UniProtKB/TrEMBL annotation:
Protein name: DinB family protein
Cross-referenced InterPro entries: DinB/YfiT-like, MST-like
Organism: Streptomyces piniterrae
Length: 184
């Protein structure tokens, strides 16, 4: 007996894709320019994370991967909200914004199987993404150096893309463990 879910996909063209290319909302024309490209990649990864969470209930979203890991899809959502907030601390020298969820790994430990926790996590993520996007919009020069550490705006954009890309890879595996759905 095996309690692992059977692998499946909605795609009919390529069996290892999440959806068929014609149905993929992330597909579109390539943008012009470096900033537009960074924004497009980040938007695509943000959408991918949401797609990996769609159709799951609170228990499935909070289900942890493999012991001793605390990683879950809901934990990833909470973690990325926390990270978006933290990046705003890199933009200016004001007092740092407080953590959303508390001490180290609280974003994962607090990912509990309750609908209120799910709703709050997605609201937190949307709010923090919007706030970080607005903060960076005030700095369109990718070479501009910010705050006392002098981090380049470009580096903040690239780091955000990298963070979402890495965690979307985790989300692929987590989703497959939950219900067997595979994706690119």
């Amino acid at each position: 007996m095996n309690d692992q879910p059977a692998r499946w996909t909605e795609a009919t063209v390529y069996p290892d894709m999440w959806v068929d290319p014609d149905n993929d909302p992330r597909e579109g024309a390539s943008p012009e320019g470096e900033l537009a490209t960074l924004q497009d990649f980040l938007a695509g990864y943000r959408m991918t994370l949401r797609m990996k969470c769609e159709g799951l209930d609170a228990e499935q979203l909070a289900r942890r991967s493999v012991p001793p890991s605390t990683m879950s899809l809901l934990g990833l959502v909470r973690h990325l909200a926390e990270v978006e907030r933290d990046w705003r601390n890199w933009i200016d020298d004001a007092d740092p914004l407080p953590k959303l969820y508390g001490e180290r790994d609280a974003d994962f430990h607090g990912a509990i199987a309750e609908q209120a926790a799910v709703d709050a996590a997605f609201a937190d993520l949307e709010r923090e993404q919007t706030a970080m996007d607005a903060a960076l919009a005030e700095h369109p020069d990718l070479s501009e150096r910010l705050a006392k550490d002098g981090i380049a705006v470009r580096e903040l954009w690239v780091h955000r893309v990298e963070e979402y890309a890495r965690h979307c890879g985790h989300a692929d595996l987590l989703r497959e463990c939950v219900d067997g759905r595979v994706g690119q």
